[in-house]
Amino acid sequence: MRDFSPPYGEIEIMSPCVRRITAPNPAPYTFKGTGTYIVGHDHVAVIDPGPNIKSHINAILDALASETITHILITHNHKDHSPAAKPLALATNAKIYAYDVGEQKYSSDDIEEGLDRDFKPDVILNDGEIIEGSNWTMKVIHTPGHLSNHVCYALNEEKALFTGDHIMGWSTTIVSPPDGNMEDYLNSLEKLTTRDDEIYYPTHGWPIDKPQQFVRHLIDHRLSREQHIISAINSGAQNVNQMVRYIYTNITENLHIAASRSVYAHLIRMVNNGHVCCDETPKETSKYYIGVQKRPAL
After folding, report:
1. Residue 288 phi/psi, 5° resolution?
2. How do residues 85-128 score in pLDDT, each as one tens digit?
3. Which of 27, 37, 201, 244 gives a 20 to 30 Å CA spacing to 168?
4. Tens digits of per-residue pLDDT, 139-163?
5. How far is CA 81 from the centre of its chain?
6. What are the residues whose beta carbons fall under 8 Å from the beta carbon of 249, sequence distance 6 or more?
7. Which string of b and e fits 76-88 if b means at least 16 CB within 10 Å?
8. Which residues pair with 142 in a beta bridge?
9. Which three-class secondary structure state does DSSP give residue 199?
10. Which residues on adjacent β-strands are paired with residue 69?
């Protein structure tokens, strides 16, 4: 769904228990901006306060001036999700909750939104943990793939799942190595198929009201992308850039970097599973092929 025009800085009522304020940070990877969710009433949780944009932080504080923020929940530490957590915590005395960043892997040339490397939660969450407020209850669902510390939050009172960037309402998710991992991502999608959520609230884009159907579509899409990669290799493409040009014929040039990262993540998985071969540790510049390459005699 791309027909999405949220009002910046204004409260939108999504359900009896859920509200949203969208940050004014539209971009190729954030769509119309970061959707900050408010859960509960009077004593509330804020999910993904977003980038450190003063007007957005003030909009959250103004909207909740007569209420108390008790929890700040982060799905993962990308710069469009977590930097506003600290100033919001300082203004409200609320604690910041997130999965452990741990030994997060990153390279010096990170793309997409970029890691918030200064992020440190006050409370480390575990998979399956229950977080309770005065009028809401949420379960932590660890969903690595987009990042190793990505989590979703399940609102028990409404069978709703806040999916962060694991599942978005406008586009497929970027899986960017080294911390992004396609095998983990597919396993995390499968994990959601065992749940009975009735609606997803992604941080970017429209809510998703047929979640099981949507997740199955995403899994099928990712697996079909691997067939496209095999077709590209069979047609003469050897490295990631060549495969992107072969596969993504209908996207603009400014999205080629994102596409290349996801193709690279697929290739790492495919090499590990034996579906594609590479004679070195897979890199974007590596040459990939199908079958067994005949090495020259020594």
Report:
1. -115, 150
2. 999 999 999 999 999 988 787 654 444 448 998 999 999 999 99
3. 244
4. 999 999 999 999 999 999 999 999 9
5. 10
6. none
7. bbbbbbbbbbbeb
8. 151
9. strand
10. 44
Residues 165 and 76 sit within 8 Å (Cβ to Cβ): yes
Structure pTM? 0.92
Q: How long a stretch of residues is the chain?
A: 298
Q: For the chain, what are the domain ranges?
A: 12-209, 225-289
**Would the pLDDT of 298 be above 50?**
no
Q: Are strands 130-132 and 123-125 parallel, antiparallel or unpaired?
A: unpaired
Dump pLDDT digits (tens) for 52-88.
Answer: 999 999 999 999 999 999 999 999 999 999 999 999 9
Please identify which residue in the block is written with the tokens 């909750």: 97
Alpha-carbon distance 243 to 238, whole Å? Answer: 7
The per-residue pLDDT for 108 is 47
Q: Confirm or reject CATH 3.60.15.10 for domain 12-209, answering yes or no.
A: yes
Nearest to 208, CA basis, from 160, 173, 172 = 160
pLDDT tens digits for range 207-266: 999 999 999 999 999 999 999 999 999 999 999 999 999 999 887 777 788 899 999 999
225-289 CATH: 1.10.10.10
Query: Measured between alpha carbons, how far is 97 from 99 in angstroms, rounded to an integer?
Result: 7
Residue found under tokens 């119309």: 32
Token pair belonging to 187? 């396993």
What value, to the nearest 5°, has the Cα angle with vertex 73 and ends 69 and 75? 155
Tell whether the model's pLDDT for residue 172 goes beyond 80: yes
The token pair that represents 141 in the structure block? 């669902």
Q: One fold for both 12-209 and 225-289?
A: no
